[in-house]
UniProtKB/TrEMBL annotation:
Pathway: Cofactor biosynthesis; coenzyme A biosynthesis; CoA from (R)-pantothenate: step 2/5; Cofactor biosynthesis; coenzyme A biosynthesis; CoA from (R)-pantothenate: step 3/5. Residues 6-215 form the DNA/pantothenate metabolism flavoprotein C-terminal domain. The chain holds residues 185 to 401 of 401 of the full protein. It comes from the Bacteria. GO terms for molecular function: FMN binding; metal ion binding; phosphopantothenate--cysteine ligase activity; phosphopantothenoylcysteine decarboxylase activity. CTP binds at G93, C94, A95, D99, K109, P125, D126, V127, I128, F144, K158, K162. One of its GO terms (biological process) is coenzyme A biosynthetic process. Transmembrane segments: none annotated. Binds 1 FMN per subunit. One of its GO terms (cellular component) is phosphopantothenoylcysteine decarboxylase complex. This is Coenzyme A biosynthesis bifunctional protein CoaBC. Residues 11-217 are annotated as: Phosphopantothenate--cysteine ligase.
Amino acid sequence: SQPQLLAGKTITITAGPTREALDPVRFISNHSSGKMGFELAHAAVRLGATVNLISGPVTIAPPPGVNLINIETAVQLLEQALIFAPKSDAFIGCAAVADYRAAAVAEQKMKKQDNELTLTLVKNPDVIAAVANLTERRPYTVGFAAETQDVANYAKGKLVNKNLDMICANDVSQNGLGFNSDHNALTLFWHNQQKELTIDTKSALALSVMTELAKRL
Ligand code: C5P
């Protein structure tokens, strides 16, 4: 068993993709498996935390001992995040939130068009930025950044722009790492510090991330 570094702490984690309906049978989503977020939740439980796991549709089982909240859309994710974040010591945004949703969801199945179909999309809310900008009961806020180039610069940009306390960056252009894989490598950034976590299982990395977080709560 692990040292109970997070005993008495409540951690809320978002995980998986969101799913944005276009009509009753179609949606926009992405390839997020939810693995990293679920491993973070598992690690937090192992370190003694009370864990809320807000997840989009995934095919993996939740770790034992978490409070699982299922959502589909970014708007639903925001609603739940704003309920749980103010009751949490830390909030970790690991979900791959769809950046856009349909401006209007068709009530009936859309019919085939000739050649082209134009969809109007509107921007989804930035969930983690909303949490990080809470003025009362703001939790320690941790984001993730999946990048294919210039990882450090983009990650540090998001740390500042979204008003986060910490960001975990991974290079998703590296074969077999990140999306859908059991392995990952992360660089953790704070406003005045950084730490490299080299290639490992998502499970081991999750324990390292939660250990670093515990030091700062
Ligand atoms: O801007 P980008 O999507 O790269 O930022 C990634 C971070 O922001 C992740 O922590 C992700 O969970 C969070 N995010 C969010 N809501 C969005 C978009 C991203 O919480 N609409």
